[in-house]
UniProtKB/TrEMBL annotation:
Tagged with keyword RNA-binding: no
Assigned keywords, A-Z: Membrane, Transmembrane, Transmembrane helix
Species whose genome carries this gene: Paracoccus aerius
TM helices/strands, residue ranges: 12-40, 46-68, 75-94, 100-124, 136-162, 168-191, 212-231, 251-270, 277-295, 301-326, 338-356, 362-384
Identification of the protein by name: MFS transporter
UniProt signal peptide: none
Amino acid sequence: MNKFGSGRAAIWRLTVAQALVGAHSTIIFATGAVLGATMAPDDSLATLPISVFVAGMAASTLPSGLVAERYGRRAVFLGGAALGILSGLIGAYAIMVHSFALFCLATLLGGAFSAVGLSFRFAAAECVPDAVKARALATVLAGGVASGILGGILVSATMGVVPNHAFAGSYVAATACAFLAGAALLGITTPAPLRSSLSADRPLKQILSQPLFIKAVIAGAITYLLMNFLMTSAPLAMRMEGMHQHHANSVVQWHVVAMYAPSFIVGGLITRFGARAVTTAGLIITGLSAAIGLMGETSTHFLVCLVVLGVGWNFGFAGASAMILDTHRPEERGRVQATNDFIVFVTVMIGSFLSGGVLATYGWYVVCWLAFPPIAIAIGALVASRKMPRLA
C-alpha cells in the first residue's frame, strides 16, 4: 500500500465508503424482490423494485459525470450520500404504509447512491501513479467484502424490529449506512477537474467509437447484466421453493462478499496477465455459476451458484473497468467513464425488468440457461480485441 503515496488516505476513505454503500445496496438486493412480491399488484412485478434500482443507477451516471467534470468528484459523492439517506427513510416509510410506488421510489434513489459508489473505483485510480492504478481500483472494490457481511447482518438483525412491518428496520439501518458513508467522504480530497483545451478536445463520438472501448463496454455490460439477472431472481426463487428468508439473506450476503473478495488479488492479476484475460476469466466463471444453478434448487445450490457468480462479476467488472482506463485521456475521464457506466446500467436495467417475468413464467432453470448466449457474445468480442493497441 505504500506505493499509493499521498493518495493513500483518499483510497482508504473511498474503501470505507464503498463498504457502507455496498451494505446499503445489499439490504435492497436481499429484500427488494421479497417485499415486491408482497406489495406488487401482480406477481410478475415482484422484481420491479430491483429493476427500478438499476434504473436509478443508469439515470444518475451521466448527470454525475457532468457534475464531477465541472465541480469535482467530492460534490457527487456527498450528493449521492444524501440520496442514500432519502432512500432508506422513504423505504422504511413505504413498508409501514404498504406503498409499492413509494418503495420503488426508495430503490430508485438507492440505485443512484449505488452508482455513485461504483465511481469510487475510478476516483481511486486518479489518486495514484499510473503503475498502481489497477491496484488502487481493486483496493476500493475490496471494501465490498465488508459490505456483504455488514449488509447481511443488518438485514437479519433488523428485519423483525418493527412489529408487523418486516424489513422496515432494515431500511432505517440503510439510512445509517448512507449517513456514515457521507461522513467518510466529507474529508476526502480528489484531484481537481481537468480542463481540456479546445484544440486538444476530442468529440465524444470519436472516443466511444474506439474498438477497445466498444469491447470493454460489451464485456462490462454483460458481466453486470448476468450478475444482476441471476442475483435478483435467486432470493425470490428460494422463497418460491419454501425456504426461509434467513437462507436468502445468507446467500445474498455471501454473494456480495464473493463479489468483492477477489479484489485483493485481481489488481495484481490485471497487471500480470492483462485486463482482457482477467475479464475473459470472469465471464467463464459466470458461465460456471449458471451451470451450478442448473444442478438443483436446494439452498446449497443457490449458495454455491451465487458465490461463484460473485467471483465472476469481480473478475469481469474489474477487468472491463481497467480496459476503460486505457481509452481516454485524463481530461476526458469524467464523461467517458460516466458514459460507460450509463451504457452498462441501461443494459442491466433491461435484463432486470425481464428477470421477474422470466422467473414467474418459466422458473429458475430458464433464468440460468439464458446466461450462456450473452457470455459467448462477450468472450467473442474480447478475443477479437486481443491485439488492439492501448490509447496513445
